[in-house]
Each structure stands twice: as C-alpha cells, then as structure tokens.
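Feature request, filed as a ticket because there's no other form

It would be nice if the structure record came with a short human-readable summary line next to the tokens. Right now we just get the raw output. Example of a typical job, pasted below so the devs can see what we mean:
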Amino acid sequence: MKTTMKLVLMVMAYGSTFFSCKKEKSSEPGCAVSIENLSGSYKLTALQYKASADAAPADYLAFMDDCEKDDILILKSDGAYDYNDTGTICSPNGTGHGTWQVNGNTLTSDGIFNGTIASYDCKTLVFYTENAIKPGDKLTYTMVKQ
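Raw output as currently delivered:
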C-alpha cells in the first residue's frame, strides 16, 4: 500500500497543471488563503477518490497503512515544509522536506502535495487534485491543523 500511496502522490505532483480554478471558500473572516494563514501543522483526516464526476466517492484513507495515517505535514511561513512520519513509523520512513507556495487558491509544492483549495476555515484545509490518476478523476484531501 505504501507504494500505491507514493504513486498517487507522484501523479499528483506531475498533474498539478490540470487544476481548475474555483473561488476559495472561507467560512470565517480573517481566514483568507495565504501562506501566513495556512502555515501550521496538519494531519490528514480524510482522503476521498472519485473516478469520475458521477462516480461514487471511495474512502482512500481506509486503504492507507496505519503508519501513514498519523503523519504530520508542517507548512512553514518561509515556504518550506516538513512531512514527518510520526507515531507508527513506516518502513521505509516517509519523512520528507521541501518547498511550497500558494497562489490564489492553488497549492503547489516540489512533490508532496499540490491542488486547488476548496475551503479553509483557519482550522480545516480541504483541497483537491483533478486528473490525479486518470483523466476525469478527483482526489480530495481534508487536513486539520494540530
């Protein structure tokens, strides 16, 4: 399963040019999407995959190894990130580092996450990647600040 998740993340990194633009949603004043506001530690709490627009969503988090479900992503305000393999450690270790940025409602990084922000309320970040594995599909990530 670790190999499948790495493949999904790699496809997402290379598929970042296929994002559609939608207006960001923020339910709380002061939660504008910016590098400063998004900075913080996040844990993935949901990962949903839809093979097509009319397909039933599948819970991809259920297919992930337990050692992947407790990892923490730290977005730093200087544009760096740390992906920490915490709790139950995977073999091989999934820890990584890199750079990230946000432009409007588009997140980009040098590999671990890319997508279009669907919503952000200063606590929960929801973003998606279209055409991640095949044309017409959609992966939606829900991450909660720790």
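Something like this underneath would help us a lot:
The mean pLDDT is 83.
The domain at 2-145 is CATH 2.40.128 (Lipocalin).
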